[in-house]
Write a structure and sequence with these properties.
heterodimer, A: 122 residues, mainly alpha, 6 helices, B: 147 residues, 2 domains
């Protein structure tokens, strides 16, 4: 039952985060790139004020998979690094935690470009 | 109802129904991707990976799938229906990177793929790093005052 609830919350929270973005796209003409930047920064802010960790605690991947989760990971990494190394942590903590995702996207993106060519736009 | 009222009515309807439909699809696809992420997370944890490692592996797995689907041209078709449902999860970030890489291949691997792979990823990484650093400085000052 617990597992079922975890999945349900992941679905609902993840879905709602996407709905907010969809409304922003349809109503405000924000481009997808701006939405992504907005979401990452919102994730850092919400983690900074302690809200996002609470959401992650019950929504799991519903909160960590959306781009706000990217901001969450960065803020969390920065906080741990500042605790350990002081002010230097503000610079070293962020990307360290997200390196796997960024490097993954760049490497897989590159490999995909080796194998596939763009299809002519219809 | 005169002609003007009617055209306003039609416009109102025409605008209303897509946004509801878009939101419903965004909710379904976004929710589904996050649920898959949760399932992958449980799977990796089951295989004995630590919590943090599992989280990173989930991101990398979803990114890999999104890049592959972008390459074979399926991702765009899904994204047309799903809208923000595929954009907001980490899959949207991966798609932005991979589609730029594929589309700019003809401009060469250095100034084409190499530079333009960052067209969308660059702003995201920049502002993520910047807001993280600002948070770090504020957090550092708070720990100085508080402790």
């Amino acid at each position: 039952m617990d597992i079922f609830l975890n999945y349900l919350w992941a679905f609902i929270v993840g879905g709602l985060l996407c709905v907010i973005a969809q409304v922003l796209i349809d109503k405000t003409k924000l481009t997808p790139a701006r939405i992504l930047v907005l979401y990452v920064c919102a994730g850092v802010l919400l983690t900074g004020i302690g809200v996002y960790e609470y959401i992650v605690s019950f929504a799991g991947a519903g909160a960590t998979v959306p781009l706000t989760g990217f901001g969450y990971t960065i803020a969390k990494g920065v906080r741990e690094a500042v605790n350990k190394d002081g002010l230097l942590g503000a610079l070293t903590g962020g990307l360290g935690q997200t390196a796997g995702g960024i490097a993954g996207a760049l490497c897989f993106g590159f490999l995909v470009s080796l194998v596939f060519s763009s299809k002519p736009k219809k | 109802m005169n002609e003007k009222e009617y055209s306003e009515y039609v416009q109102g309807r025409a605008k209303k129904s897509p946004i509801l439909k878009n939101c419903a699809f965004a909710f379904l696809f976004g929710g589904l991707i996050c649920t898959i992420g949760q399932a992958l997370n449980d799977l990796y944890t089951y295989f004995g990976f630590e919590k943090e490692i599992s989280g990173t592996l989930v991101s990398i797995t979803l990114i890999f799938i999104a890049c592959l689907l972008t390459g074979i041209g399926v991702f765009d078709n899904i994204a047309k229906i799903a809208g923000a449902g595929t954009l907001v999860p980490i899959t949207g970030f991966a798609n932005a990177v991979a589609s730029q890489a594929v589309d700019t291949k003809s401009e060469g691997y250095i100034m084409g793929v190499g530079a333009k792979i960052f067209t969308i990823a660059g702003p995201v990484i920049l502002y993520a790093t910047l807001s993280g650093a600002i948070y770090g400085v504020i957090y550092y000052i708070i720990t100085l005052i508080g402790g």
